[in-house]
Amino acid sequence: MWQIFGGAALIVAGIAAFIEAHTHRPQPPHGIVIPEGARLPREPSELSHTAYDLLRIGGWALLIFGVLLVVVGLIDYARRPA
């Protein structure tokens, strides 16, 4: 039974990671020519592309692992004698 609850918690954490990644999505520059050595102004809440990708990959990993735990927990629960 704990597998089901743990899997559900991982699913919720994965969804929260997707929401957080979407909230702080990096914006690509739109046709702006930037001089050598100049920096683009970024909003304080914007993630770098690498951090954004890692957050999304982590969200997928949590979601997939959570679903697997729920499925295995439900199969185990169904096989138990009443």
Describe the SSE topology.
Layout: H1 2-23, H2 49-79
Helix pairs in contact: 1-2
Keywords:
82 residues; 0% strand; mainly alpha; single chain
**What fraction of the residues are assigned to beta strands by DSSP?**
under 5%
Number of H- or I-type helical stretches: 2
The assigned structural class equals mainly alpha
Number of domains: 1
Largest sheet: none
SSE sequence, one letter per element: HH
State the shape: rod-shaped
The residue fraction in helices comes out at: 55-70%
Radius of gyration: 20 Å
Average pLDDT rating: 86
Beta-strand segment tally:
0
Distance between the termini: 14 Å
Low-confidence stretches: none
How would you describe the overall organization of this protein?
This protein is mainly alpha-helical and 82 residues long. The chain has one domain (2-25, 46-79). It has two helices and no strands. It has helices spanning 2-23, 49-79. α1 packs antiparallel against α2. The protein is rod-shaped.
